[in-house]
Amino acid sequence: MSETILELSNVSKTFAGKPAVRDVSFGVQRGRITGFLGPNGAGKTTSLRMSLGILTPDSGSVSLFGGKPRPAALDRVGFLPEERGIYRKMKVIDVITFFARLKGVGAAEARKRGLAMLEEFELPGVAESKVKTLSKGMAQKVQIISTLVHEPEFIILDEPFSGLDPVNQNALEQIVRRQAEAGRTVLFSTHVMEHAERLCDQIVLVAKGRKVFDGSVKDALGEVPRRVTVEVTSEHDLSQLLAGKGEIARGEPVDGNAVWTVDLASGTDAQDVLKACVDSGVKLARFEPVRAHLHDAFVHLVGASATANAETETV
Ligand SMILES: Nc1ncnc2c1ncn2[C@@H]1O[C@H](COP(=O)(O)OP(=O)(O)OP(=O)(O)O)[C@@H](O)[C@H]1O
């Protein structure tokens, strides 16, 4: 049976009269990767800070490892905060060792682990460099290593992908996967859906401080109407031919062909559309059931206006 290691119950937080988090509840299960998703300003960082006891909720409660988020519990957590920043004048290996020692790892072991992780994170040869000589992305990787070096059982990463180039975003996805394979629990926030779609067992979606979805990626994709694109060489009016099979719209012609999209009504599938076309002698140039992505579910659940900010950063 799965074990809930973090549970937020009806948690709310208001700053200067402006609600940031409104009555949010969700749980994080041991050994799973949970994505905490939402547009800018949705309340993700505030919720993560409340999860760790950095902020106290105005109402509702937080349970971490079955109790209040006390300092002793935090030794079992690795937290990457949204504000990046490590000691610029220190050497890379000294920074990593320092964070490991804060969490109770012995000096020799901390150094050994730090050097191994620099290799794993494809940062060989920077151990003795000063942090200030690193690029922003490299410094962020060092900060992520510092978050993981004490081998925490619960890893919380606030927007870990932002600031990394696509190659390093990919590398970080693999690191998150390896942490989960090693039995660790991961909770990360992001407003870029692609990472969550590839990585997560569970997603929690928030918008304007409220939870709007909590479930698997598959369930989220199930919220999006299934779509078929039909390109026809004949002048049939598909809106009449396919009436009752879903929402039908005619788009811009392609190479002189008419292009229609059909958002399938529930209980109708792509084969029904295909059969209706074939039975009526419609000449098909293309018939394409469109695979929904998490981004589509996000837009569907949150609304296009709320996603405007989230569009600004892509992988
Ligand atoms: N310390 C604070 N004082 C005042 N307002 C705050 C504070 N922290 C957050 N807020 C406000 O609370 C709301 C939620 O912010 P939060 O940082 O939790 O969102 P987020 O989902 O993490 O956004 P982003 O993706 O942009 O980091 C925002 O309107 C923000 O301006």
CATH class descriptor of the largest domain: Alpha Beta
- For the record, give the distance between the C-alpha atoms at the N and C termini, rounded to a whole number: 35 Å
- Number of discrete domains: 2
- Which H/E pattern describes the elements? EEEHEHEHHHEHEHEEHEHEEHEH
Number of strands: 13
Helix tally equals: 11
What is the name of the CATH superfamily of the largest domain? P-loop containing nucleotide triphosphate hydrolases
CATH architecture of the largest domain: 3-Layer(aba) Sandwich
Radius of gyration: 24 Å
Query: Biggest sheet, open or closed, and with what strands and sense?
Result: 6 strands, mixed
- Distinct small molecules: adenosine-5'-triphosphate
**Strands of the biggest beta sheet: in what spatial order?**
5-6-7-3-8-9
Shape: elongated
Indicate the mean pLDDT: 89
The secondary structure category is alpha/beta
Low-confidence stretches: 308-315
Percent helix, as a range, is: 25-40%
Describe this structure in words.
It is a single chain. By secondary structure, the protein is α/β, with parallel strands linked by helices. It folds into two domains: 218 residues, Rossmann fold (3-Layer(aba) Sandwich), CATH 3.40.50; 66 residues, Alpha-Beta Plaits, CATH 3.30.70. It is built from eleven helices and 13 strands. Strands 5-6-7-3-8-9 form a six-stranded mixed sheet, sandwiched between helices. Strands 11-12-10-13 form a four-stranded antiparallel sheet, with helices on one face. Strands 2-1-4 form a three-stranded antiparallel sheet, with helices on one face. Helix 3 runs parallel beside helix 5. The longest helix is centred in the middle third of the chain and has 16 residues. The radius of gyration is 24 Å and the shape is elongated. Bound molecules: adenosine-5'-triphosphate (ATP). Adenosine-5'-triphosphate binds next to helix 1.
